[in-house]
Design a protein that fits this description.
By secondary structure, the protein is mainly α. The protein has 2 domains: 16-99; 111-147. The chain is 66% helix and 0% strand. The chain contains 5 helices and no strands. The protein has helices at residues 20-36, 43-59, 65-82, 87-99, 115-146. Helix 1 (20-36) runs antiparallel to helix 2 and helix 3 runs antiparallel to helix 4 (87-99). It is elongated. The chain starts with 19 loop residues before the first helix and ends with a helix. The chain crosses the membrane at residues 127-146. Keywords: Membrane, Transmembrane, Transmembrane helix.
C-alpha cells in the first residue's frame, strides 16, 4: 500500500489593518505630497522619492480585499487627478478591478478633450429640434388653412 503525503497549506487570515499595501499607500501619499510642494532645490530628490514609492506601491501585494479596494481607489484618484498614463499603473488598476469583480471601468475615459465637441453636438441637436418644430408647425398651419 503506497502512502502519499499531502502537504497542507495553512492560510493565515490577515487583519485588514496589517495589510502591507496600506503602508505603501501612505508612503506614496507622503512622497507625492512632498513632491507637490518641493522647491527647485529639492525637486529632483522629491521626484525620485515619489517614483520609488510608486514602484514599491505597484509591487506590494494586497493581502486583504480591503487593501485591494484601498489600492484601487488610490490608483484611480491619481489617474484622474494627475492624468497618469503609465502602463504599469493602469495595468495594476485593471487587474485589481478584475480581481474585485467590479463592473466599473478600471480607468475612466478622458472626457476633457471631447467636452467642447459634445457641447457643440448637443447645441446642434437642440437647434435641429427647434427648427423641426417650427417648420412642422408652419406646415400644419398651412395645411389647416387650405382645408
Amino acid at each position: 500500500m503506497a502512502t502519499t503525503s499531502h502537504a497542507l497549506r495553512v492560510i493565515e487570515h490577515v487583519p485588514f489593518h496589517a495589510d502591507p499595501i496600506l503602508k505603501a499607500i501612505d508612503a506614496h501619499d507622503e512622497a507625492w505630497s512632498v513632491w507637490q510642494v518641493a522647491t527647485d532645490a529639492i525637486l529632483p530628490r522629491a521626484h525620485h522619492d515619489m517614483e520609488s514609492a510608486l514602484a514599491r506601491l505597484l509591487t506590494t501585494p494586497c493581502l486583504t480585499r480591503f487593501g485591494s479596494v484601498a489600492l484601487l481607489q488610490h490608483l484611480r484618484w491619481h489617474v484622474d487627478h494627475d492624468g497618469i498614463t503609465d502602463a504599469a499603473v493602469l495595468a495594476r488598476a485593471s487587474d485589481l478591478a478584475l480581481y474585485l469583480n467590479l463592473d466599473l471601468l478600471p480607468v475612466a475615459p478622458p472626457r476633457q478633450p471631447l467636452a467642447p465637441i459634445l457641447r457643440a453636438l448637443w447645441r446642434c441637436g437642440e437647434m435641429i429640434a427647434c427648427l423641426s418644430i417650427i417648420v412642422g408647425g408652419m406646415g400644419l398651419i398651412g395645411l389647416a388653412s387650405m382645408l
